[in-house]
Specification:
Blueprint (H helix, E strand, L loop, with lengths): L21 H6 L9 E6 L2 H17 L4 E6 L1 H5 L3 E5 L8 H6 L1 H18 L3 E5 L2 H13 L4 E4 L11 H8 L2 E4 L4 H6 L5 E3 L3 H5 L6 H8 L7 E5 L4 H21 L4 E6 L2 H10 L11 E4 L2 H7 L2 E5 L2 H8 L4 E5 L3 H9 L10 H8 L11 E3 L5 H12 L2 H19 L6 H13 L5
Parallel strand pairs: 1-2, 1-4, 2-3, 4-5, 5-6, 6-7, 8-9, 8-11, 9-10, 11-12, 12-13
């Protein structure tokens, strides 16, 4: 999933063990190692949540298992022994990674040596492909079994990366249903386990409850604005999005604008951008966290491209997506034909992959030079003014939600655990 572009503590609370469905129990029923050491390497907050869910599910099969590696607070709550602080890997952007490269290379060398010494039953790298795939390849060469959980976006660019991933991982666990077929073309064992976010959102969303929670009027039009979860994104997009929201408000009487801040840094950045906004019922309201509740309360969402678009889709909320990358990065990607898709937002990619039409555009995308206050406002206002179109989008999002849950029993963490146990207990050779 990569990192999540919104943070919602109500959604990400540590999970408690739940009964394992019968279909999963059958998979977990053999009696191999009763107390294996299982290494998990999570590099971001979203990976910490996936890791915590995975530990809970694996303990159903291995109650005495020891879990080690790199993880955060949620994994530690489940009894995880973290050898390094998860923040060691929480880097974003080429320049930031380059500046920390010597330290990251030392960490990877130490980690690989320790894993080879410990000889865990399996090494599970969660996302963070730039770091984890290198670790996985080295320990696999040393005879350890490896799993990569969360495929990089091979459906969007550089499909040939699937071969490199296959050299690193004995098995890839995929969140999206179209991914295993791509890997199979390159001879890689990949399993669709479902997307955990699809388990965390109800199939039928509760707008009334979300508005009560946020103390918003039930009969007012509401626009959620999410210009990103990192200060760098908000600095780049925040002013554009806020100006777009104000333009919508000028043409839509009674509009309430709500902006969730993912963290304290983002809150400070948004506060500065909103500093000259007059205080009245129509002024943007900035709140701490609760991004999912804000989406559920909204009629339309205006947001930056990224995982947040998937969250808005699962909340069944029509949306407008905007984004800008540096002009240099954009020209490089275009010049080398690195992008294999003409759409960027996950709902549009999923709609095409899941059979809703090869030219389907569910979500307006305004990228680069098109990401202006005027164009964002026009697309957002058009959704507010077309209730029939909003209803069609919601129906399509419901179909995609079902597709991300898959037809198998249990939740994504259960299915991921089953695929890992199967690999652990498979005879060598």
């Amino acid at each position: 999933m990569g990192h999540s572009d919104s943070e919602d503590h109500a959604v990400h609370a540590p999970v408690s063990p739940a009964p394992v469905p019968a279909g999963i129990q059958d998979t977990l029923a053999s009696s191999g190692q009763s107390a294996p050491t299982i290494a998990i390497l999570a590099g971001e907050d979203s990976g910490d949540q996936l890791g915590a869910d995975l530990i809970v599910a694996l303990r159903h099969r291995y109650p005495l298992a020891r879990f080690v590696g790199i993880g955060g607070a949620r994994m530690k709550t489940q009894g995880f022994d973290s050898w390094y602080d998860i923040r060691e890997l929480s880097l974003f952007g080429f320049a930031e990674v380059i500046s920390h490269l010597p330290r990251l290379l030392r960490l990877r060398k130490e980690l690989v040596a320790r894993l080879i010494l410990e000889r865990p039953a399996v090494v599970v790298g969660i996302d963070a492909p730039d770091f984890n795939l290198g670790v996985e390849q080295r320990v696999r060469t040393a005879g350890l079994r490896t799993v990569h959980y969360v495929s990089p976006s091979i459906w969007a660019w550089r499909e040939k990366r699937a071969e490199k991933i296959g050299r690193s991982a004995d098995r890839v666990l995929c969140l999206f249903p179209m991914e295993p077929d791509i890997y199979s073309r390159h001879g890689v064992d990949a399993r669709f386990v479902g997307h955990p976010l699809a388990d965390r959102f109800a199939l039928v969303s509760d707008r009334i409850g979300a508005r009560d929670f946020l103390q918003l009027p039930q009969n007012a039009p509401v626009l959620a604005v999410l210009p990103g979860s990192r200060p760098s994104e908000v600095n780049k997009l925040g002013r554009i999005f806020i100006e777009a929201a104000k333009k919508v408000a000028a043409d839509l009487p009674g509009l309430r604008i709500v902006i969730p801040a993912a963290n304290a840094q983002v809150h400070a950045t948004l506060t500065a951008l909103l500093g000259d906004t007059p205080g009245n019922d129509g002024a943007p309201v900035l709140i701490d966290g609760h991004a999912h509740e804000v989406m559920l309360a909204a009629d339309v969402v205006l947001l930056a491209s990224g995982t947040a678009t998937l969250e808005a889709m699962l909340a069944k909320r029509p949306m407008v997506v905007g984004y800008r990358v540096s002009p240099v990065s954009y020209r490089i990607a275009k010049a080398f034909n690195m992008l294999k898709t003409d759409v960027y937002a996950l709902p549009n990619i999923l709609a095409r992959a899941c059979g809703l039409g090869k030219d389907t555009i569910l979500v307006p995308e305004l990228m680069q030079d098109d990401c202006t206050p005027e164009k964002l406002a026009a697309a957002t206002l058009a959704l507010f003014q077309d209730s029939q179109r909003r209803g069609e989008i919601v129906a399509a999002f419901e179909q995609l939600h079902h597709a991300l849950r898959g037809e198998l029993e249990g939740q994504a963490g259960d299915r991921a655990a089953a695929a890992i146990v199967e690999l652990i207990e498979r005879p060598h050779g």
